[in-house]
Design brief:
elongated, 1 helix, three-stranded antiparallel sheet, Transposase, about 100 residues, mainly beta
Amino acid sequence: MKKEGDIVHFHLDELPVIPSEYAHLHLSGNGFYASSTLKDFPLRDKKVLLHVRRRRWVDESGKSYSRSWDLVAEGTRYSKEFAYFLKEAFGYPPDTCPIS
């Protein structure tokens, strides 16, 4: 966690656990993909940014694998839950809301 003015940054890395759908393959860790940034619920009147890094796995032939995540609401950089809240609470599409 890092505070920067009125913004709180959380840096989250995927745990080093091979995805169950690839359990039958012999995979080894191969670092991370570039982080994705998404906006989440405010925390004590501060904006919250989540910086998420997905792990990259590689098999013996060099082919890369990773988990498929669906964290962001379509057309936004908001978490699905936060985008739904903004739309329901204010009736705005998420990126046009006054608190975005």
